[in-house]
């Protein structure tokens, strides 16, 4: 029975002489004089981990990692702890130590025993690498993992490259969350031909019946402007031009990256910023011809 120890103060409630002693390993609180146990289990107020620096102490939280679709076991697996002590905190005997060690080994081996688990582990380590390379958020990665799990469930991975399907799932997630990453960006980051990623992407769209929103050129402006080193004034002007283009229905069916690049080039010309078509084209990852064609269209329709 756990008693409220605040009423006892520093002295033993039975003999009233001995000081109260706390055993941190067993969680008992008892009298140092007569040995009377006041409480068997006191609450642990400190953290469950050790910190060796100020940063570690601030970084670590009391809870574990949250569940995530981007982990092969969704973060729900359990492990046999590394501490060789039993439930009461006593050290294990030598024979029990070796038994537990063997159990640990088999436990870790059985975690990825199924081929599906091995597939997920390989796929999600690749997804984690792409996350860092493309600098996308956790929400995008969760969506990509969800799409990949659905693809594996439908048997779309069999006979196809895991890396290509992961890249396609990530591109689909970027499109769905309106994160401005092009197919070329994803293909370059994953070291796979753009054609292969596009094929897998079309397969995912067709088989999983995904509905993708149209890419908004406005989302691409900030990225191109940042890469080309353009001013905030030019960026705002480009956003105004795109808004007018959308109202005039001339943005329909056009490549969003090319349209955003052309709008930025028009804004550069209007603000007298010294940037060539080549500079803007390289930042956007499109050709100069595309920018010229979109530039002509914008000039004609908006009467610039």
UniProtKB/TrEMBL annotation:
Keywords: Initiation factor, Metal-binding, Protein biosynthesis, Repeat, Transcription, Transcription regulation, Zinc, Zinc-finger. It comes from Candidatus Nitrosocosmicus franklandianus. GO terms for cellular component: transcription preinitiation complex. Belongs to the TFIIB family. It comes from the Archaea. Zn(2+) binds at residues 12, 15, 31, 34. Residues 8-39 form the TFIIB-type domain. GO terms for molecular function: DNA-binding transcription factor activity; TBP-class protein binding; translation initiation factor activity; zinc ion binding. This is Transcription initiation factor IIB. Signal peptide: none annotated.
